[in-house]
């Protein structure tokens, strides 16, 4: 689902709001999540899942798969997502 699809769906369910208000709400929602992750906080959306950041250690002896030369990979921070039990059950429901 794209951001534009999300906005359209939101507009269908809330016809009293105009497009600019909906775009502002969606943008604020995502910016708030981005800010929290940037600060190293976790973001928990009950019934959906949890976003969190994880530090990946630096590697001194990695190989470039194309040339097989040894390379240094610096430490980095990655965003991870863990689904909630409720979402897992909803996705795996076969009925």
Tell me what the structure shows:
The chain is an alpha+beta fold. It has 2 domains: 1-40; 42-95, Irregular (HU Protein, Chain A), CATH 4.10.520.10. The chain is built from 3 helices and 5 strands; from the N terminus they run ααβββββα. It has a 3-stranded antiparallel beta sheet with strand order 1-2-5. A two-stranded antiparallel sheet has the order 3-4. Helix 1 packs across helix 2 (19-38). It starts with a helix and ends with a helix. The mean pLDDT is 93.
Helices and strands, in order, run as: HHEEEEEH
| Terminal residue distance | 22 Å
The tally of strands reads 5
Biggest sheet details? 3 strands, antiparallel
Radius of gyration in whole Å, from Cα? 19 Å
Strand order of the largest sheet: 1-2-5
Quick recap:
By secondary structure, the chain is α+β, with helices and mostly antiparallel strands. Helix content is 41%, strand content 29%.
Keywords, separated by commas or semicolons:
95 residues; alpha+beta; HU Protein, Chain A; 2 domains; three-stranded antiparallel β-sheet; two-stranded antiparallel sheet; 41% helix; elongated
Topology:
Elements: H1 3-13, H2 19-38, E1 43-45, E2 49-56, E3 59-63, E4 70-73, E5 76-83, H3 85-92
Antiparallel strand pairs: 1-2, 2-5, 3-4
Helix pairs in contact: 1-2
